[in-house]
Amino acid sequence: MKKKSIIMLVISVLIIITIIVCAFLFNEKEELTSLPKPEVTSGVRGEFGIDKNINEKTIDNYLNREDSVYRDMRMLKDPGNYEAIGGDAYLSGFVKGFEVVPLPYLVNVSGLPEEVGDTYKGKTLFTEKEGEYSANYKESMDILEYLFPKDKNIFLMCGGGGYAGMTKTMLVKLGWDENKIYNVGGYWYYEGNNNVEVKTTKYGKTSYDFWKIAYHDIDFSLLHEADNNGNE
Fold it and tell me: Does residue 229 carry a pLDDT above 70?
């Protein structure tokens, strides 16, 4: 009888410990899933729409979330002269977990610094004119919704923050929730622990390991043009 009482006591203690551990893990998970509301920082960086709380310095704290997607908006090789402003026209590296979706393939780009010159001028999914966006292909919106799921938090990055800011502006204008989209800023200023080097120098020669990149290609030859009004 005494032995049975001891066994019951041990079982009760184990149950209590299990409840405490589960409660701790649940509270920890709740804390991890809580994100600060997007808030544009001040100064020049604010002009690009870079977030005050989640940016190059803090993004490591918000990686690998199942409720989020991570998009780098740069081209593999941008025609613009970004070296003129201290950047890199090549996608020389990225933050682990980010997938590349080049903004210049999504929409025509304008407003770049004079020193940079022009970027890509080819086909795009959408055309922006005076703040309004029209679809150039019947599949344009389907592609956009696939690449930027509306039910997820969306973390955007690029070289200096400009392309990421332009992407958020477009998504919000087309119906996305602005409170679920974060302009993380520029890879050029990232000094965290999740850097993936693409640019390599061996035997005196520089090359780019683009095979490391999760890259979303848009083959315009397979798409169907929308009518003149941008409708499907």
Answer: no
| Contact in structure between 183 and 166 (CB atoms under 8 Å) | no
* Tally of CB atoms within 10 A around 154: 21
Ramachandran region, residue 79 (left: φ > 0; alpha: ψ -120 to 50; beta: rest):
alpha
Q: What is the pLDDT of residue 217?
A: 94
Q: What's the chain's average pLDDT?
A: 89
* CA-closest candidate to residue 153, choices 73, 66, 68: 68
pLDDT tens per residue across span 89-138: 999 999 999 999 999 999 999 989 999 999 999 999 999 999 999 999 99
Q: Are 84 and 116 in contact (CB under 8 A)?
A: yes
Place of tokens 């997007």: 38
User: Residue 204: left (phi > 0), alpha (psi -120 to 50), or beta?
Assistant: left
d(CA 190, CA 177): 26
What is the CATH code for 43-222?
3.40.250.10
Let me know: does 108 contact 223? Beta carbons within 8 Å: no
What residue has token string 């799921």? 149
Burial class (CB in 10 A: 0-12, 13-18, 19+), 9: exposed
